Amino acid sequence: MSNTTTTMQDDPAFEDWSGEMGERWLAYLDQFEGMIAPAGEAAVAKAAAQPGERVLDIGCGGGATTLDLARAVQPGGHVTGLDISPQLIDYAGKRAQAAGLGNVSWMVADAQTEALEEGGYDLVFSRFGIMFFRDNDAAFANLCKANKGGRLCCAVWGPPPENLWVLKMGEIVASVVEQPEPDPTAPGPFRFADPDGFRAILEKAGYREVTIEPWHGPQLVGGPGATPAQAAQFAMTAFNLAEAVESAGEEGKRKVATDLEALFAQYHTDEGVSMPAMTWLVTAQA
Q1: Which residues of 52-73 are buried (b: 16+ CB within 10 A; e: fewer)?
Q2: Which label site among 44, 80, 150, 162 has the fewest CB atoms less than 10 Å from its CB?
Q3: What is the mean pLDDT of the chain?
Q4: What is the model's pTM?
Q5: 3-class DSSP assignment, residue 220
Q6: Using an 8 Å Cβ cutoff, are 52 and 75 in contact?
Q7: Sorting pLDDT into bands at 50, 70 and 90, what band is 18?
């Protein structure tokens, strides 16, 4: 694929995302993107990318936000989509070509360690793609250097109690198999749920004028239009819940699937399985 830079990292996360995790996300890309589209649209609007700007989209996945940003910076602007998954970057590049967008390039790389151009980006953006760095201090210092003179805008998940879709699924899994107490500082979706902690990380990296605002909206489990049964099947496979309860045997899996379907039935609407979600919309100056 043209306009793509590949950087191989000696990192287990690279192996995961270049293998099973990347394949799973790609297999369920429409459903995943449909779920997080409302929050992503809010983040893109908050970023307010302007014509002529240079943008870096961190953890761009299948490229949905990258393409939205590429349209926003026309004419004269350029967007680079960066992700650690080769499969997702390959798919994103094909989407850009199909959309006729020539102001996009792609990188298979780790934003924590990649040698990014100093001051090369007016806007560093991310929709749920920055919560998995091994070393936050190193990663955000690297991004701030590349963002020098520009701004940051990202969406990260708020606390699990504010995100019933994950809280309730976790309770169902824990009713069958005992779950370890999560480490809130470890790489994972809710790593930056504490806004004060995230603010401190950004300020240490060199960012200033950090603002963190809540966004509340729907999370369409399984994507728009999913039935409770379809949403339950999606959760079992795409979220890997079936593997999480493997030790409970087939009876345990059936219980989890049944309980999930009953949960999702409570939130079923004309739009699909719509559950409350909360994210932080974060902006800062580099």
Answers
A1: ebbbbbbbbbbbbbbbbbbebb
A2: 162
A3: 91
A4: 0.91
A5: strand
A6: yes
A7: low
Q: Is residue 194 part of a domain?
A: yes
CATH number, residue 194 = 3.40.50.150
Pairing mode, if any, of strands 151-157 and 272-285?
Answer: antiparallel
Which structural domain, as residue segments, surrounds residue 115?
A: 4-159+183-219+277-285
Q: DSSP state, 160?
A: G
| Cβ partners under 8 Å of residue 162, min gap 6 | 216, 276, 277, 278
Distances (CA, A) of 47 to 83, 126, 154, 226, 254: 19, 10, 8, 30, 43
Let me know if residue 168 belongs to a domain: no
- Rounded to 5 degrees, what angle do the CA atoms 86, 92, 96 make? 145
How many domains, in total, are found in the chain? Answer: 1
Per-residue pLDDT reduced to its tens digit, 25-36? 788 899 999 999
How far, in Å, CA of 225 to CA of 230, rounded?
9
Amino acid code (one letter) for 83:
D
285: left (phi over 0), alpha (psi -120 to 50) or beta: beta
Which amino acid, residue 30?
D
b/e sequence 114-137, b meaning 16+ C-beta within 10 Å: bebeeeebbbbbbbbbbbbbeebe
Residue 128 forms beta bridges with which residues?
none
Instruction: Note the pLDDT tens digit of each residue in 237-252.
Output: 998 888 888 888 888 8
Check pLDDT > 50 for residue 11: no
At residue 64, does pLDDT exceed 80? yes
How far apart are the C-alpha atoms of 25 and 233, rounded to whole Å?
Answer: 15
Distance, CA of 86 to CA of 67 (rounded, Å)? 17
